[in-house]
Amino acid sequence: MPAKITNPAVRRYTIRLFVLMTAYVLFLILAKWMFKRGMAEGSFAYVLALLPALPIIGVFWAVMRLLVEQTDEYLRMLMVRQCLFATGFALFVTTIREWLQNFDLIAAGDGGFGAAFFWFAGLGLGALYNRLTLGDGGCS
Amino acid sequence: MKNRLKVLRAMRNWSQADLAEKLEVSRQSVNAIETGKYDPSLPLAFRIADLFELPIEEIFERGE
């Protein structure tokens, strides 16, 4: 049985995350399906291509809302550290990749692993960093 | 910053969870403050002082 989330801010964040991730999967499937069948043309193609990006942007919003709504200052501090770690990690990886691409040492494109992917991965690494340095991974 | 939170809590026979509930913070917060990993904000320090009915300087003292 999954652990009950008692912190109201974390509970709201979890619900938002679930809704946004469900929307992401549905929009991605829809966009790929329509592009594959040549149903996306003109300006509609742009709208369709951006559709899966909207829930990802929504997750950034949800994380920032968590920072605003978290009333426990210690847990908020842990989350801020996680976000800073994630931002640094994403910028580090994407800058390295960009410069390797600038000199044609690696192929152009991101293979589906964009800045958002590394930022979310950075959140996980940030929690690990908190655990290693403060002995506490964050909200539960 | 050093503090006497653990001693004061023990004198009242409160668990970390009890103190966290009274202060309306997480148990993790109480633990982090007690172990010196986190220094509370001034408003939280005042809440702690009010709860124990002591001046802040009798709970928290200068130092690393």
TrEMBL record, chain A:
Keyword tags: Membrane, Transmembrane, Transmembrane helix
Transmembrane segments: 13-31, 43-68, 74-93, 105-128
Entry superkingdom: Bacteria
Protein name: Transmembrane protein
Native source organism of the sequence: Novosphingobium hassiacum
UniProtKB/TrEMBL annotation, chain B:
HTH cro/C1-type domain boundaries: 5-59
Pfam families reported in the protein's UniProt record: HTH_3
Keyword line: DNA-binding
Ligase recorded as keyword: no
MF terms (GO), sorted A to Z: DNA binding
PANTHER family: DNA-BIDING PHAGE PROTEIN (PTHR46558:SF4), TRACRIPTIONAL REGULATORY PROTEIN-RELATED-RELATED (PTHR46558)
Full protein name: Putative transcriptional regulator
Species for this entry: Novosphingobium hassiacum
Phylogenetic classification of the source organism: Bacteria, Pseudomonadati, Pseudomonadota, Alphaproteobacteria, Sphingomonadales
